[in-house]
């Protein structure tokens, strides 16, 4: 196909105002004007002609290089590939019209072979929408991805071209999130301070009422209290983007994943702490929890179970406290997978919450499918619960909702996991015990098993963990008495002279006390003579 380079200028005839074009006398001077290229392209489907044209080259060499580039792109499609020829021709016509840079030859070759858009104009936001629509995972996972995309990724980097996304773009995004956090914290502090000041203004008196009205108006104009984007959320945002870009790489849309190389501050998971006497005393004084994750001692767990002994869902609290079921697993446990004669139950389903909607689902991972052994006391508790449920079924008669679940509402329908959490918090508050979350009962079950000397692999399998390291890292909260026994056992391994001397002194002191006690006892037996 025909193609050429030529030099032209934009001088106009001073009398007519028309462009002089090639007739400009100044074109004899090398530095006057600029070079242009024109390459004929394969015609459109209707037979109409089209071409690639570009002007503004300072040198003939630069113009010829682009003309060669265009011809190399045209040569990517084989002569017997009319579809490929048409795609490249359309791409070049669009590049010419929009005056965008010529695409790389090898990149275009790869895109042509993989059937992708040759120009690669898809934006990050468009790709994230496509990627999310193609995901076939649990609704809870989709919801998490959708939140990251809608709130963080699309507003900040959604406009960028996918193939031009760089690590620097992501670093800027997370910096902007950190800056936004600082702004949110400042606005929250201002609103709280204004509310606190409002509480100090008396209600009576016209001046006070006028001041309160003005302050309320000012408070209403302030931004509402908002949550910041914490370290864990930022890591999840990065994970969402990284997963989507990995899929783009697998589809050969891009070749580099910048999300795999952006650095974020590590997230430290809160360690579970036991409610010792000292921590309980401080909580009574200040109302503060030492850690977001707190675990009851065996005595505190027993006190709670005694307090809720007459609660309709006592069996659920008992099962979670001793066997460590998750909230959704307990709510979704069917009687068909609960074998009381064999002292076991099989976790094969759960109730999951999406917003406020609830649906049944399988366990999230293979390790979630598991068989849990039951002790005699737990079996007896579940049998009494079943008898009460049978009585409820007879009471409700035809209005009974047959779900086949172990734990239900009074009419047999599903328990709402969110309402179960609320109920647990109310029961804990009424018991007067230091606060824990419902999930912390699961932490407590793990702690009790480990304190009882149960092998960590058995504990991990009971809890449904995929790796025993998860059990050690998260759930191994050592109870004070267990720690003391471990410390004493360790200390006895090292023979020290001062230890032997201290032991002899302790024994001598004990003998002296015993001798003194015997002497005093004999003195009491002797009656004084009158």
UniProtKB/TrEMBL annotation:
Keywords: DNA recombination, DNA-binding
Bias-annotated ranges (Basic residues): 521-530
The keyword DNA-binding is assigned to this record: yes
Chain intervals with Basic and acidic residues compositional bias: 498-520
Segments for region (Disordered): 13-53, 495-530
Domain Tyr recombinase: 291-488
Protein name as it appears in the record: Site-specific integrase
Species of origin: Actinacidiphila epipremni
């Amino acid at each position: 196909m025909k193609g050429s380079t030529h030099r032209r200028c934009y001088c106009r005839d001073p009398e007519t105002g028309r462009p002089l074009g090639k007739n400009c006398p100044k074109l004899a001077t090398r530095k006057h004007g600029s070079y242009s290229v024109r390459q004929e392209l394969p015609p459109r489907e209707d037979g109409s002609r089209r071409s690639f044209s570009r002007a503004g080259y300072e040198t003939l060499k630069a113009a010829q290089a682009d003309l060669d580039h265009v011809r190399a792109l045209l040569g990517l499609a084989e002569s017997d590939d009319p579809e490929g020829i048409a795609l490249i021709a359309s791409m070049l016509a669009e590049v010419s019209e929009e005056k965008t840079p010529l695409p790389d030859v090898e990149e275009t070759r790869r895109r042509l072979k993989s059937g992708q858009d040759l120009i690669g104009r898809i934006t990050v936001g468009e790709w994230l929408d496509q990627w999310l629509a193609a995901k076939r995972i649990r609704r809870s996972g989709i919801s998490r991805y959708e939140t990251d995309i809608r709130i963080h990724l699309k507003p900040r980097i959604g406009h960028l071209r996918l193939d031009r996304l760089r690590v620097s773009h992501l670093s800027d995004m997370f910096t902007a999130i950190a800056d936004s956090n600082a702004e949110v914290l400042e606005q929250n502090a201002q609103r709280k301070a204004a509310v606190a000041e409002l509480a100090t203004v008396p209600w009576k008196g016209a001046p006070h009422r006028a001041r309160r009205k003005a302050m309320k108006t000012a408070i209403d104009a302030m931004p509402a209290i908002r949550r910041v984007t914490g370290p864990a959320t930022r890591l999840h945002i990065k994970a969402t983007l990284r997963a989507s870009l990995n899929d783009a790489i697998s589809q050969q849309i891009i070749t580099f994943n910048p999300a795999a190389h952006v650095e974020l501050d590590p997230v430290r998971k809160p360690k579970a702490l036991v409610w010792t006497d000292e921590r309980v005393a401080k909580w009574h004084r200040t109302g503060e929890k030492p850690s977001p994750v707190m675990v009851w001692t065996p005595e505190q767990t027993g006190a709670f179970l005694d307090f809720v002994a007459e609660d309709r869902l006592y069996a659920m609290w008992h099962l979670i406290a001793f066997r460590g079921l998750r909230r959704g697993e307990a709510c979704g446990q069917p009687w068909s997978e609960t074998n009381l004669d064999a002292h076991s139950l099989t976790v094969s389903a759960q109730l999951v919450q999406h917003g406020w909607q609830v649906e049944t689902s399988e366990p999230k991972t293979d390790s979630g499918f598991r068989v849990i052994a039951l002790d005699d006391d737990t079996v007896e508790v579940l049998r009494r619960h079943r008898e009460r449920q049978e009585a409820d079924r007879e009471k409700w008669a035809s209005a009974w909702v047959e779900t086949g679940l172990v734990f239900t509402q009074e009419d047999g329908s599903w328990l709402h996991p969110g309402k179960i959490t609320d109920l647990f918090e109310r029961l804990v508050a009424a018991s007067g015990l230091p606060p824990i979350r419902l999930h912390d009962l699961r932490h407590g079950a793990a702690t009790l098993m480990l304190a009882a000397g149960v092998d960590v692999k058995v504990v991990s399998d009971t809890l449904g963990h995929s790796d025993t390291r998860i059990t050690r890292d998260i759930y191994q909260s050592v109870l004070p008495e267990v720690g003391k026994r471990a410390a004493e056992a360790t200390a006895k391994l090292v023979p020290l002279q001062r230890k032997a001397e201290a032991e002899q002194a302790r024994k001598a002191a004990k003998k002296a006390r015993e001798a003194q006690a015997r002497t005093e006892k004999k003195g009491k037996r002797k009656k004084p003579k009158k």
